[in-house]
Amino acid sequence: MSTSASLRTRWNVSDIVVASTLAVASGVIFWGWNLSYHAVSTLFVAYPPTASVVAGMWLFPAVLGALIIRKPGAAIYCEMVAAAVSALLGSQWGLGVLLSGFLQGLGAELILLAFLYRRFTLDVAVLAGAAAGLAGGINENWIASYYQYDAVGTVVHIAGFALSGAVIAGALPWLATRGLAATGVLGPLKSRRAHLESALTGRTRTAGTPAA
Amino acid sequence: MAVTARGFTYQHADRTRPAVAGVDLEIAPGEKVLLAGPSGAGKSTLLHALAGVLHPDQSERPEEEAAAATSTGDLLLDGIPADQARGRAGLMQQDPESQVVLSRIGDDVAFACENLAVPPDEIPARVRQALSSVGLDHLPADHSTAALSGGQKQRLALAGILAMRPGLLLLDEPTANLDPAGTEQVRDAVIAAARSTGATLVVVEHRLSLWVDHVDTLVVLQPGGGVSCRVPAGALHTDQRLRGQLTEAGLWVPGADPLAGLPAWSGAGRAPCASEPQAQSGGKQLLTGSGLAVHRQSPRRSWRRGPAPQPVLSGVNISLSPATAVGITGPNGAGKSTVMLTLAGLLRPHAGTLRAGAALKGERGQHLPDSPADWRSEDLTSRIGTVFQEPEHQFVRSTVADELRLSAERARVPGSRRPLFSASEVDERVKRLLHRLRLEDAAEANPFTLSGGEKRRLSVGTALAAGPQVLMLDEPTFGQDAHTFAELIGLLREHIDDGGTVLAVTHDQDFLRGLEAERFDVARFADRPEGARSGADAAGNGPEGTRGGPDAVGNGPEVSWWGRSGRDTSWLGRRGPLAKLCALALITVALIATIDPVSAGVVAAASFALLPAAGIRLLTFLRRIWIFAVASLLAVWGAAVAAEESGRVLLDLGVTTVSTGSLELGLSLGARAFAIVLPSVLIFSTTDPTDLADSLAQQVRLPARFVLGALAAMRLLGLMAEHWTALGHARRARGLGNQFLTQSFGVLVQAIRMATRLAVTMESRGFGAGPRTWSRPASFTASDALVVAGGAVIAGAATALAVLAGTWNLVWLN
């Protein structure tokens, strides 16, 4: 029962509550983003498909959750709870936001699965963010079809989404995880040493480094 | 219940030494123990271990062995290892917010019973009994937990623990965040509960006088070692050696003066500080407020929020002179912090004027506007420094030295971008402050990893580094030990001696005495009569002092329906959440399936027609949805510009064109985007999250641990929004202006801290292991079937009419 595999993958109470709370805090950050960057969206009026280059903002809970919890399902769970929070606060997409949340989380999740939940490095984070963006782009153009752009518009929209995901929902969450680990708040979680890991190999720096 | 520790040692992961080591202790059944010791002696660790919420690592990778959490020795409750005695010990922690799990008081108390699989028909009696034994039985069971004061929240937590019928009560500084009245109520409730249940009691507290006359035994832990003494509690009054030892350790020993160790100081001879503005002395005053009306929420009107809120205090006249101290006092929730934030230039007054005198503006300050609220962040920070109740709100850098350096660098010469301090002056200030704050050894440490006392000193230091003449502090001594208290007094006395002014929101009489501060009681400015202030009175003691009533959410997201008391009594509000969700899903799928204006129109019309059933007034509804209408216009424009062109060209923009075809498509998309929001607003504003979670776990059979975890986290939404607002204030106070990224990071840190404490609370109440029962069975009734049928009819009608009109097109085939 308590084999090393189940220890590695079973969520304990801290994992569940931290993941849920992160998702709820993300909802508050979404709201702060809306408020601070209302003007940003008007920049894209000239050619609306390019607006997706800031859409990575909606994807960051997926990769952040995955990097902090480091257990299967974290990306989907965090993104869906964050989506549920936006639905409760009133989302532009109504109930459809849950579908978006699921698909975007799934995009990130597949990348982490491909690395068997063993690598949480910068490159994996960037890939996962891009995959979440790609999934979001596919959903918004072909599944939920919120947009009906011509071929050029569709390509621009999806590429912008993936790029935005890679940066805002990939690299930034990776940096945030390191910053959080350095504050010591990740103590009960598997990611508590993230700030000591090398960016690309993921190996922990050897002892002698104070945990500050 | 008997407690036995034999050579118990626990080392947290990644630490070089154990938190507790070699503890040998016997506690008899029913014994009441006060557990004391200096900061870092491992008192909390021992309590957590007794509560069974510590989990030594079962290391999976050998290379991590050295850093793993380990436990050795025995810790037994009635002979059973503590981590296997689930539900036998109840734990209460310091922060009231993380002691509450669910959003209605009855549900919160029932939570532990459900986790321990108590039969559902037995639970209501247990809940009633527990609520009455902590004196909360006058409140209805569906009273909102968000509307409780800090003291009431702690008593609710006690009720949740008592409902488990535990043999051991563990309390970890249960009153550190409470005002004096709340503190005594909690203590009395705990003592009464321990007496009536015969449970063993272990309480950790550094204000010893609060408990010493109510317990049997005093146990003192020493850092890195075991128990240094175990004596009858009364010895604390008589044993001089013991008293000396505990005073040395920074504990609040009854009858000992916490100021005794400080050099003599007298503020006498300073100009009397005039709370009421004096007509002629305007020139000397630093800051003068006349007729101020204050509220957390900005007075700026907004379309969404409706009318401006009623101020919590009005007609406040106050003025600050150089080299004085003022203590803002008054009952909990009276608006003390709000007054302070307004005076600090962080909130705008709703009425009256706030004017900075020439003395505060300084020699180069002639360009500054009169009101600090209009100052640039950089000008504010070098004149008025603000120290927040939660020191972490102020931290933005990764080392202590950088944190101080940043403050010194941000100060600017008024009206220009030139720094106020030269590079060498900055270095000098940082060096001097590190010394004064006794943080030289921690200069390269991450601020978040400091001890509580060090964080408090650093938070004062970051404010002082920018060289402000006025220093404002919000409950600076909450939860601090006597050492930190005395150091803080010393720092503030120096500030006053240098001609500075201190204004503090505080309940602490020793603090007021230590600074010879003049009391400024705000109760007399209360706008609402005492009885009508239940919401504000209920305000707890979280990060910013006031919270609770829906209006306390202030600048946060609109979650006012969240904390409301009682249930939604509209027709839709009384229906089962699963049925509503099904109906909403049917309608949403019907809308997503096609891009046409007819189906969108049908759904929109149906939504408006259903407003009476949802008990939502038209104006309220319009206020909530107008922003989505704007978003739909953007959708129209997006398609018009960037969709496949067809038909006549209406507008040629050079690179792109708008044609009749693309405009028609855009209008359909816009109508659909607007229509998709309306039913979800209806459903979500009439659905209670707790009921929804019950449904999802019991009827849809989603994993209960995850559903309840998400539910407990959602309760924190309003709190998180308050953290967001406070973090914004702290950035402005530090001269950083608007900082979205560090503000987001700050919210994440607070979220994880809170989540970690909440996880401990939930686990100590039996959550997460084994089968559970449900005290609120979710059912599916005939009228729920009607709701689903209604959803199907709307979805069907939308589709059918669109097909008839010839506009229906399956989007996935396009």
Topology:
The complex is a heterodimer of chains A (212) and B (814).
Chain A: H1 4-9, H2 13-36, H3 38-42, H4 60-69, H5 74-89, H6 96-114, H7 122-143, H8 151-183
Helix pairs in contact in A: 2-4, 2-5, 4-5, 4-7, 4-8, 5-6, 6-7, 7-8
Chain B: E1 3-11, E2 20-27, E3 32-36, H1 43-51, E4 70-77, E5 80-81, E6 89-92, H2 105-115, H3 123-133, H4 150-162, E7 168-172, H5 180-197, E8 200-204, E9 217-221, E10 227-232, H6 235-238, H7 240-248, E11 287-294, E12 313-320, E13 325-329, H8 336-343, E14 351-356, H9 358-361, H10 377-381, E15 384-387, H11 400-410, H12 423-436, H13 452-464, E16 470-474, H14 482-497, E17 501-505, H15 509-514, E18 518-521, H16 534-537, H17 577-592, H18 597-609, H19 611-614, H20 618-642, E19 649-652, E20 657-659, H21 660-685, H22 689-698, H23 704-714, H24 717-733, H25 740-764, H26 782-805
Question: What this model shows, in words?
Answer:
The complex is a heterodimer of chains A (212) and B (814). Chain A is 64% helix and 0% strand. Chain A is built from eight helices and no strands. Chain A has helices at residues 4-9, 13-36, 38-42, 60-69, 74-89, 96-114, 122-143, 151-183. Chain B has 814 residues and is α/β, with parallel strands linked by helices. Chain B folds into three domains: 3-248, Rossmann fold, CATH 3.40.50.300; 287-296 and 310-534, Rossmann fold; 572-700 and 781-813, no CATH class. In chain B, 40% of the residues lie in helices and 13% in strands. Chain B has 26 helices and 20 strands. Chain B has a six-stranded mixed sheet with strand order 6-7-8-3-9-10, sandwiched between helices. A five-stranded parallel sheet of chain B has the order 15-16-17-13-18, sandwiched between helices. The model of chain B is unreliable at 274-282, 529-556 and 558-565 (pLDDT under 50). The chains are: A mainly alpha (212), B alpha/beta (814).
Q: Radius of gyration of chain B in whole Å, from Cα?
A: 30 Å
Q: Radius of gyration of chain A over alpha carbons? A: 17 Å
Helical content of chain A stands at 55-70%
Describe the main β-sheet of chain B briefly.
6 strands, mixed
Helix content of chain B: 40-55%
